[in-house]
């Protein structure tokens, strides 16, 4: 009963906020989104702690990379929440049917890579992550270029899940839920459709490959690599980021699959290479990745030095 009440309250809050946000000019709405993000940074202590801990543990790797912008874990976590607040208000506008201007303003770079992949006639496995406003990226691409079937996890809150699904389908995209997704993904690719895959969430070791991510081993889904190999569909990485008040989608050349004969070793090599695209994104746009997720929750604990073990 308490869970049902919480779900209804969460949904009511989204509906109320979306109604208010829809009335605001885009610039004012984004300012409100940053304020919402800062408020949640203070109130949602659990996710704030996860974000700060994730960033702090990744800083040694990030600080060693060329072009690193700097910043403390707390500062970067706060800005991450601000970006998520902006994402919320943008999704609210889309839900209320006030997002066409937002979609029209998205800038696409590297469309020639998408066009070259599409010309092969085998569909496209669009590889991305929880970066920038990933929902806007899929919707804008679907409206302006080609519909996408997004592989997604059902939200725990069924009422919010229904709202999010409504937004996705209202702009022409499809949804493939992870439970039983394999057959639907192959069917879509066989029909030369585009399937969108987010590959940056923690997975159980049984379904993943242990690869280094931001300096630490993380269990990473290997399914996209296996699908790309079995279907022959080109894999095109693409990500969205905020830059100078605009949302920019950057598409990269088709990823060239591993030439290893062993399918398991090849999948591991491909998973490492695809994960590296996300690392590069985080280095360039550290506050626009989804740090609030427990990305390393199933990963092995760091080794403890012999001298420290007795402390």
From TrEMBL:
<dbReference type="GO" id="GO:0005886">
    <property type="term" value="C:plasma membrane"/>
</dbReference>
<keyword id="KW-0012">Acyltransferase</keyword>
<dbReference type="InterPro" id="IPR004960">
    <property type="entry name" value="LipA_acyltrans"/>
</dbReference>
<keyword id="KW-1003">Cell membrane</keyword>
<keyword id="KW-0472">Membrane</keyword>
<keyword id="KW-0808">Transferase</keyword>
<dbReference type="GO" id="GO:0009247">
    <property type="term" value="P:glycolipid biosynthetic process"/>
</dbReference>
<dbReference type="Pfam" id="PF03279">
    <property type="entry name" value="Lip_A_acyltrans"/>
</dbReference>
<protein>
    <submittedName>
        <fullName>Lipid A biosynthesis lauroyl acyltransferase</fullName>
    </submittedName>
</protein>
<keyword id="KW-0997">Cell inner membrane</keyword>
<dbReference type="GO" id="GO:0016746">
    <property type="term" value="F:acyltransferase activity"/>
</dbReference>
């Amino acid at each position: 009963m308490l869970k049902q009440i919480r779900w209804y309250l969460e949904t009511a809050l989204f509906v109320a906020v979306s109604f208010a946000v829809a009335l605001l000019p885009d610039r004012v709405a984004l300012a409100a989104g940053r304020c919402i993000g800062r408020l949640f940074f203070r109130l949602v202590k659990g996710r704030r702690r996860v974000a700060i801990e994730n960033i702090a543990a990744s800083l040694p790797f990030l600080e060693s990379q060329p072009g690193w912008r700097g910043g403390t874990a707390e500062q970067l976590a706060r800005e991450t929440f601000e970006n998520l607040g902006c994402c919320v208000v943008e999704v609210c506008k889309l839900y209320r049917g006030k997002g066409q201007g937002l979609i029209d303003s998205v800038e696409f770079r590297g469309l020639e890579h998408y066009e070259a992949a599409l010309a092969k006639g085998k569909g496209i496995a669009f590889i991305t992550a929880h970066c920038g406003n990933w929902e806007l990226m899929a919707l804008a691409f679907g409206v302006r270029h080609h519909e996408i079937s997004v592989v997604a996890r059902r939200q725990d809150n069924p009422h919010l899940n229904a709202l999010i699904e409504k937004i996705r389908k209202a702009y022409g995209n499809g949804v493939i839920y992870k439970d039983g997704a394999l057959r639907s993904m192959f069917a879509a690719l066989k029909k030369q459709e585009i399937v969108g895959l987010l590959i940056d969430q923690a997975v159980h070791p049984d379904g993943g490959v242990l690869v280094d991510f931001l300096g630490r081993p993380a269990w990473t889904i290997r399914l996209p690599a296996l699908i790309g190999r079995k279907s022959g569909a080109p894999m095109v990485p693409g990500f969205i980021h905020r830059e100078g008040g605009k949302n920019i989608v950057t598409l990269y050349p088709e990823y060239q699959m591993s030439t290893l004969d062993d399918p398991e070793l090849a999948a591991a090599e491909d998973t490492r290479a695809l994960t590296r695209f996300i690392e590069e994104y985080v280095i360039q746009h550290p506050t626009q990745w989804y740090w609030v997720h427990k990305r390393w929750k199933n990963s092995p604990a760091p080794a403890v030095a012999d001298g420290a073990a007795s402390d």
